[in-house]
């Protein structure tokens, strides 16, 4: 039913009205979601290969819509990007995650928290100042914050994005390249970016224990990352055999259902306590 026009806008022959109305109302809902406390951050452990776990986590946003119920980020983040609402959304996520990290630190169980930036955030010249004031407000040393970005963030205006990244890095934060291997990963980019961490996409990790090809790719990626002085994290690990292979390859951290799903902050505390016992 949907066709793409040359300018990239979807054209609808039938049902266009309902489609537009649906989206307009969703945008209204999203704008209110923050005020109505419908957004919540979940935290998924990034477990060190030789550690108990719980010292690092990725913040992942969830939207509990009053009528539609649970809406996964994969559905409303792209929508927020298209409508320009992402700037406010990212600000909320940053503020919430930084506050939580500050609280964990004060409670004597520090967690380094990772926050996802969207491609459009990298083109916002005001972002570094925003982050600086948020960590200042929360009394959070920059070592406890990591920002995850994707390579597609640079495609439109690489010079502008690079400038924002350098300013963020100068604040002392960690910067991770997310979904590594799925984009137009060029080695030249990786070398030029002021990043500290590389996250290997789930697509390469999934069949790791069975596919020789994927195993070669992951092994060389870990080696490359280490040669460039980066920490390497594998995403989407679901079973022990893959953990064993990644450990043997020298991967630094593992994030996946095998250790823990994304969970609310209180559940994350319980998860950690259970592992420390
Ligand atoms: P991502 O940054 O690549 O996040 C990892 C996704 O993989 C999460 O999905 C997580 O729940 C899922 N995952 C983790 N371990 C496993 C596993 O072992 N198996 C499987 N099948 N999946 C696993 P989620 O939470 O639905 O988020 C999807 C995407 O939405 C994220 O991908 C990220 O691109 C975006 N996103 C989520 N929260 C935010 C946010 O606060 N801001 C922005 N800009 N984007 C966000
Ligand atoms: Ca991520
Ligand atoms: Ca990812
Ligand atoms: Ca992703």
Task: Describe it.
This protein has 277 residues and is an alpha/beta fold. The chain has helices spanning 16-33, 73-83, 86-106, 127-137, 152-155, 158-170, 187-192, 202-205, 212-227, 240-249, 265-276; strands spanning 2-4, 10-12, 39-45, 47-48, 56-65, 69-71, 112-116, 145-149, 174-180, 197-200, 231-235, 253-255. Strands 3, 4, 5, 6, 7, 8, 9, 10, 11 and 12 form a ten-stranded mixed β-sheet that branches. A two-stranded antiparallel sheet has the order 1-2. Helix 4 (127-137) packs parallel to helix 6 (158-170). The longest helix has 21 residues, at 86-106. The chain is globular and about 50 Å long. Bound molecules: ligand C2E and calcium ion (3 copies). One calcium ion (CA) binds next to loops. Residues 23-276 form the EAL domain.
